[in-house]
Amino acid sequence: MDYQIELRHFVYFLAVAEELHFRKAAEKLFISQPGLSTQIKQMEEILGTQLFVRDKKKVRLSPAGAYLKGEVEFILNHLEQTKKQLKLIDQGHLGEIRIGFLGSAMQNVVPNLLLDLKQEFPLIHTSLEELSNRAQIRDILHDQLDLGFVRLSRVPKGLKLKPVYEDTFSLVLPQDHPLDASTFKNIKQVSEDDFILFSQDYSPLYYDTVISICEDGGFSPKVSHKSVHAQTIFKLVENKLGIAIVPTALQDGFQMKVKFIELKRIKQRAVLSMVWKEDNRNPALKNCMDLLLKP
């Protein structure tokens, strides 16, 4: 009997690929384990490829299965997003754009974009999610985001990166720190202080840039704490657990007992870029990009 690949095969395959356990995957799918095993075996026969390596103790993906898992995740997510877009369009809207961002982008770039979209394209829906650089890149590659705002110098093949905002850096100090804008001369004045940084995993470019700011001042910073949230960093500074260097825009919107000294005379700048997938077919994306890049 000739069989053809059907959507259910992909759904069943992904469940097993995620669980790496046929019984657990079958329970997740509300089907019998023998039935699931039969469907996976049928899929392997149709494709002429072994997708799983099975032994008595465990199940693991074959190299072909690992590749297929990524592709199926993309396909199923794209189908789900297509259904969502169709529903919005049928209701008279222009679809949805999914936006990821770092916290600092919410100080100016993202709010301005949302206001411009509301004015120019009120029928476009938006969804927002604060994510690390790495998570945004992953979700854009898997078609789970349309547009991201990141601090990166390079991105994987297939993605485009365009700077949209350049900011200075500022030193963040406890309110009663002896240094202030009038007495600050250079960064070496805080070489003995502990530093609180954004996690390297959250933003590698930011982390390396702050390290370079200190090294240009003739010292390597003593890093006492790391975080992925500006509010946490400011709270730690407020409680005199260290000092920080952040993009200047982050000083807006937080009411804490800290003070900022803008580092105007250093060469480093905090560059925020938008990132998107070159072959993204969401028509709302172009409207967003046009607004971001308008003079």
Automatic annotation (TrEMBL):
This is DNA-binding transcriptional regulator, LysR family. PROSITE patterns: HTH_LYSR. The keyword Nucleus does not apply. GO terms for molecular function: DNA binding; DNA-binding transcription factor activity. Coiled coil: none annotated. Residues 5-62 form the HTH lysR-type domain. InterPro entries: LysR_HTH_N (IPR000847), LysR_subst-bd (IPR005119), WH-like_DNA-bd_sf (IPR036388), WH_DNA-bd_sf (IPR036390). Pfam families: HTH_1 (PF00126), LysR_substrate (PF03466). Belongs to the LysR transcriptional regulatory family. Keywords: DNA-binding, Transcription, Transcription regulation. It comes from Flagellimonas flava. One of its GO terms (cellular component) is protein-DNA complex. The lineage of its organism: Bacteria, Pseudomonadati, Bacteroidota, Flavobacteriia, Flavobacteriales. The keyword Transcription regulation applies.
